[in-house]
Amino acid sequence: MKYAIIDIGSNSVRLMLWADGKTLFKRVITTRLGAGLAQSGVLSQAAMERSVSAVVQLCGEAASWWKGEAFKTRAFATAAVRRAQNGGDFVALMRARTGLETDVVSGEEEAKLAVYGALGVSDGAVLDIGGASTELCVREGGKIVVSRSLDIGAVRLYDLCKDDKDKLLAGIGEKIAPLPPCGQPLTAVGGTATTLAAVQLGLEQYDPARIQDLRLMLTDVEALTERLLSLSAAERASLKGMDPARADIIAGGALLLLEIMKKLSRAEIFISDRDNLEGYLILRGLL
Ligand code: LMR
Ligand code: MG
């Protein structure tokens, strides 16, 4: 079976094309669906329009990729739609404009998506720093022993704290306090982590093969975070490896990753380009 899977996140809308057990193509459009949600509790009309338009565009890209061959499209949404008071309006707008039913995943499912995507059925711990939420999922002895979703992410931090380090640290400290200790090797998925990896490598062009399983040391993440915090968003946008659409929110996201590594006593973290898009196929039994 051929699939087009669409992940509607708080920062971005992403597409994965999948066939014959392989990821063929991924694409991301930054729409900031969750912008302002931290203060207002609702998705703005403009953000909903931008995000649904991105889905329409990605559906068109999927159709032209497969040139008339049959494929199935599935769309799922994460923390922004789950939490917003008007998340139902977004689901209705999606239905009206695209004919797609949006699968709004729970926090626990969102955590599992990351572990299924990055590790398949192997043991380990996976962290997904998103726009409105951050998930930690741990599998030990073949069983999921932790699947936590925290009310914090790169867009949310930017909305509430901009680049104010003290404010960021206070907000992060409070939200990550409930994270349980875990002994498994830690892998990170999601745009914050993969962008930090691409900047660390100085990639002119994003290359999933170079990102997959890249190891970043705590000292690397510390240095990257300090560097990003010391630059303006415009300066960050011109760094090699940076996605310019993420330049404003990346410093807070980097600090969040750093603080979680410290909280979990990690000297290293592995980065995975395989993420919740691949995980969705497993979670919903589509393989
Ligand atoms: C999100 O929550 O938007 C993420 O899935 C991806 C991102 O762009 O950080
Ligand atoms: Mg996400």
Overview of this structure, please?
This protein has a 6-stranded mixed beta sheet with strand order 8-7-6-9-11-10, with helices on both faces. A 5-stranded mixed beta sheet has the order 3-2-1-4-5, sandwiched between helices. The protein is of the alpha/beta class. 46% of the residues lie in helices and 23% in strands. The structure holds (2S)-2-hydroxybutanedioic acid and magnesium ion. Residues 9, 78, 130, 190 line the site of magnesium ion.
CATH architectural type of the largest domain: 2-Layer Sandwich
- Helical segment tally? 13
User: Kindly, what is the distance between the CA atoms of the first and last residues, rounded to a whole number of angstroms?
Assistant: 8 Å
Name the helix and strand elements from N-terminus to C-terminus, one letter apiece: EEEHHEHHEHEEEHHEHHEHHHEH
Instruction: From the alpha carbons, calculate the radius of gyration and give it in angstroms.
Output: 18 Å
What is the name of the CATH superfamily of the largest domain?
A: Exopolyphosphatase. Domain 2
**Poorly predicted ranges:** none
* CATH structural class of the largest domain: Alpha Beta
Percent of sequence in beta strands? 15-25%
Bound molecules: (2S)-2-hydroxybutanedioic acid, magnesium ion
Sheet bearing the most strands, described?
A: 6 strands, mixed
Mean pLDDT: 97
The chain-level structural class is alpha/beta
Q: Reading side by side through the largest sheet, how are the strands ordered?
A: 8-7-6-9-11-10
**Residue share in helix:** 40-55%
Number of domains: 2
| Shape field | globular
CATH topology of the largest domain: Nucleotidyltransferase, domain 5
Number of strands: 11
